[in-house]
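Retro notes (design track)

What went well: tokenization of the new backbones is finally stable.
What didn't: we kept losing track of which sequence belonged to which structure.
Fix going forward: every design gets posted as structure first, then sequence, in one message. First example under the new rule, 264 residues:
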């Protein structure tokens, strides 16, 4: 079918925010890309823009990775097109804010499906090839939310704890095979994600929201140097490190207090 064998960097959630940032940064480094998201028009526009500006090949596949067969369908198409995933950036994900009992069950199930299940399944589908080739890398976008529980964003925080733990374990398993795995843990970042999660109104966000470019740079550097965990931003790193020495009861009350203050 397809485009002949071509190595690509597969970026999920590539139509906006950090995903778009990763696409632009990697195209500038002359990497061929495969952009995946639900919004076909936005992917197509971005692909044309990057191909023209950077003279690289940018493929697109519209896919809903929260669907039970989403990752499987995507990888079947990748194979049919003769594409080889040299690097996987698991960036797709979303958050929802509110009391667990009040938020819709469907939305929270979808959050786990996208933030955890799809990320795990795509990793499982690309790793054997990477191990065989003794090269390649996976960058999983976690969050500083991974370091403590998050009352009023309970499921979101829990999904990011999964991503961090999974990534660290995988890093250890595959490093002797020449494959790199890194977890990127940004704090509040100025992207569309924050609009979806209803976070852009908070004072905390306005004051500390990091530019997406800095987070992208940190993530790509972490993957390049095979750094298992990269917390983006000095203040975020300090907060993530201090959690280890904070009693769990206090940590969850602080996190809960911050989310509750945003409710108002």
């Amino acid at each position: 079918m397809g485009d002949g064998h071509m190595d690509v960097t597969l970026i999920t959630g590539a139509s906006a925010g950090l995903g778009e940032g990763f696409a632009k940064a990697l195209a500038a480094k002359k990497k061929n890309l495969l952009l995946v998201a639900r919004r076909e028009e936005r992917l197509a526009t971005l692909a044309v823009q990057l191909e023209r500006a950077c003279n690289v090949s940018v493929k697109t596949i519209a896919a809903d990775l929260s669907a039970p067969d989403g990752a499987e369908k995507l990888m079947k198409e990748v194979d049919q097109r003769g594409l080889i995933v040299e690097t996987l950036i698991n960036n797709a994900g979303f958050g929802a804010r509110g009391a667990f009992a009040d938020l819709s069950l469907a939305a929270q199930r979808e959050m786990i499906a996208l933030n955890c299940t799809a990320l795990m399944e795509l990793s499982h589908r690309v790793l054997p090839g990477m191990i065989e080739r003794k090269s390649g890398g996976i960058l999983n976008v976690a969050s500083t939310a991974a370091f403590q529980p998050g009352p009023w964003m309970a499921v979101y925080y829990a999904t990011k704890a999964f991503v961090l733990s999974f990534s660290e374990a995988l890093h250890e398993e595959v490093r002797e095979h020449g494959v790199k795995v890194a977890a990127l843990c940004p704090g509040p970042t100025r992207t569309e994600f924050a609009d979806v999660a209803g976070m852009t109104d908070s004072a905390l966000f306005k004051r500390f929201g990091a530019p997406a470019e800095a987070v992208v740079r940190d993530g790509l550097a972490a993957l390049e140097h095979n750094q298992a965990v990269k917390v983006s931003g000095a203040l975020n790193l300090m907060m993530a490190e201090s959690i280890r020495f904070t009693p769990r009861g206090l940590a969850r009350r602080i996190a809960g207090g911050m989310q509750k203050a945003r409710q108002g």
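Added context from the reviewer: The beta strands are 6-12, 33-37, 58-62, 83-90, 137-141, 180-185, 229-231.
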